[in-house]
Design goal:
It is built from six helices and ten strands, in the order E-E-E-H-E-E-E-H-H-H-H-E-H-E-E-E. By secondary structure, the protein is an alpha/beta fold. It has a domain of 152 residues: P-loop containing nucleotide triphosphate hydrolases (Rossmann fold, 3-Layer(aba) Sandwich). The longest helix has 17 residues.
């Protein structure tokens, strides 16, 4: 079976300082994976490298396709969804407009946009209640939910969630985890890559844990 995501000896340096060092791993389709490590270990850089936001040496493949040959702005249309740690919502847009934005950029057909929006609402039903509110008026935890909904608009093959639980109150963290379980129950084929500093938050949910330390994959464990 062709892996959904594969890193082959990937190196990334930022301002001449090595951040990723010969990173190699693969994730099968339908796997939920945690990438865990301390702050500064290379988790976010790994996520950003998949999206094409770093200058990487080595090969990153999505379903066998070399992403190095695909411009960063075209990668989401391959089925990549990305929720960055800082959410990056457009505060003057409504919640629903923020969710729809990637689909509009990708020029999805109206009927496909509606189908994917309903998919996001089925995973995150509370977003439907917030749909018309300005995104700038939602709480930080709700903003994380909006960022997940937005990532779901194009994330049909691989969904990358960077530190989604950081700063969430326990109740919101539980609701976010429930949303991920709903997504998994609705779509057994999508691959999830979730970065996290605290592995205990994900141990009951993920199939595979990758541990990164000082830019190197130190350990891979299956659950």
């Amino acid at each position: 079976m062709t892996p959904m995501l594969r890193f082959e000896n990937v190196n990334v340096a930022i301002a001449d300082a090595p951040v990723l060092r010969n990173v190699s791993f693969s994730l099968a389709p339908g796997v939920s994976a945690a990438l865990v490590g301390r702050n500064g270990a290379g988790k976010t850089t790994t996520a950003r490298t998949i999206m094409g936001f770093t200058k990487a040496i080595g090969t990153v493949r999505l379903g066998g396709e070399d992403l190095g040959r695909v411009a960063p702005h075209r990668r989401p249309s391959l089925g990549l969804g990305y929720a960055p740690e800082d959410r990056r919502l457009f505060s003057a847009f409504s919640v629903e407009e923020n969710i729809l934005l990637p689909g509009r950029v990708a020029k999805l057909r109206p009927e496909e946009m509606r189908r994917r929006l309903e998919r996001a609402y089925s995973v995150l039903p509370e977003l439907k209640e917030l749909a018309k509110r300005p995104a700038g008026s939602v709480s930080g935890g709700q903003g994380k939910m909006v960022a997940l909904g937005r990532a779901l608009m194009l994330g049909t093959k691989l969904l990358i969630l960077d530190e989604p639980f950081q700063g969430l109150a326990p109740v919101l963290a539980q609701r976010y985890a429930e949303a991920l379980r709903r997504l998994r129950s609705q779509d057994s084929e999508i691959t999830l890559l979730i970065t996290e500093s605290n592995p205990k938050l994900l141990e009951t949910f993920v199939d595979v844990t990758l541990t990164i330390e000082r830019g190197e994959i130190e350990d891979t464990s299956s659950h």
